[in-house]
Amino acid sequence: MDERKTGKVATLLVAATLLATAQAMDTQAEAARNARQASEAVERSRRAMHAWLRRASKVTGLLPRTGKDPNWVVKDSAADLYPFLVLAAYFAEPSLYETTMREILRQEVLRTTRVSRLSDDLLPGGGWAFPQPDLDRIIFGSSEYAKDGLLPITELLGETPWYHRLRGIAADIVRHAPYRCSRGRLPACSAEINGNMLQVLARLAWKTGEQALLEQALAIADFYFFDMLPATNYIPVDLWDIEAGKPQRPIFVLSDHGNEIVGGLSEVYWLALHRHPDKARRYREPFTHMIDRLLEKGRNADGVWVSRINVETGEVADARHAHCWGYMFNAVYTAFLATGEEKYRRAVESALRAVTLKPEYLFDEKGAGRGWGANAYSDSIEGALVLLNRVPNAETADAVDAAMRKYFDRQRPDGIIEDWYGDGNYIRTSLMYALWKSQGVYLRPWTSSVQVGAVRSDGGLTIRLEADAPWQGRLCFDHPRHRDHWNIARNYPRLNEFPEWFTVEHDAAYQVNDRKYLGAELIEGIPQTLAAGQRVTLEVRSLGAPPYGNK
User: Fold this and answer.
1) For 538-551, how does the pLDDT look when each residue is reduced to its tens digit (9 = 90+)?
2) Which CATH number fits the domain 40-440+478-503, given the four candidates 1.10.155.10, 1.40.20.10, 1.50.10.20, 3.40.50.300?
3) Structurally, what CATH architecture does the domain formed by 441-477+504-551 represent?
């Protein structure tokens, strides 16, 4: 090789080395930034947790509904507040998770169960908030507790005492379902409660295979797919008169307190595809017809859901966008997974573009005037994160960062956000955001003195650890929870999941810097000791599939 060619090769090698070095530095800087964002999210969650624990009843140990309403209200305190204190404790203060959070669960079961294992509201002194039990109220509250509170704990942590509480509530709602139709018994006449239960029953049916839970899920789905939807132009209605066979009012709410039925039906269809193909063949036409009608009638010009539509006319009844715009797009994306039809994926991509171009879909600056609270902000941001997990979009990710910055700033110095049970959703969103920024890697304990962030790179993971004070604990990795916790065949998008980012397999091998580990060890957590001011970068790579003895 002549000198000119040799010089060119050397120049190219130097350029390649410099580029690789610059990319590595950029990746480490991004991981460090993610670590700071994740740490703030966890610390804010911890502060909110303690602020609400200070308000617990001195008699029952249970939590109030708001700063001014001291009652334990099942559909609010149990569903939207307490469960996320449990998750904050799990990450930030494991000792509280093992003590205070379990004691609250114990008191909840001992004091609030009124119809079998179903709960009713309690006064702070321990008496019933309502003198007489009302089955509709009790089923509604218990279904909210199961779907919004106990499902997310189980999605993240698997089999815990809260999972068994979930199973008990589901079984007794099935047992006491009060409404009869041609397809069997129903828990309610409302889209919200039936949607709650479809989501709970579908996931428990995946996990347990219990026939009673499966049959109830299929009875509800049969009623909607074969009876209601053909009579309502394939748009569900909020309230249905079973005896008259018609809507009590011809409105469908595409926001909270209505849209739960669409997600629930998508979950049962996905379950049927994998467990009951004969039933799935019958469900396909009404399911896709429902999704198509909703996409046709229920979106605004930006491709985002409106709040309400008239079922009879198909006209928009409330043009304000649905703050939980992402949740029904879970069902749309599930339709894409189930059918392979690209139009459903394009609808999701269109919504993500709209959210990027108009940040008010993620965070409404005029929220106080529109009745938006922590719950609405949480729903909008979480909807984006669940969809970004399936349809990555860098610009939308930046918009989520901007929204979270504003959302963080809503927290008061005392840890309270808005002084109502929706503060629990602030914790839920913050933890979901933190796990995105760490790509599912977390510390136990995840204290304010240590930070962890991560970035995917070249099929592996770059992790950044930074300690402001001496810290000792475990660095834990995520795993395919949809399979390990639920036995779900493929990870479809669903309400109250915590998205999976970088996951490891229990029986696979991985290299972390110069050491090799089994995935099971990474999931359990590898010991770490950090000195004050120490900064550590870890590079994680899969060693591929076994056998390893030949490599």
Assistant:
1) 999 999 999 998 76
2) 1.50.10.20
3) Sandwich (2.60)
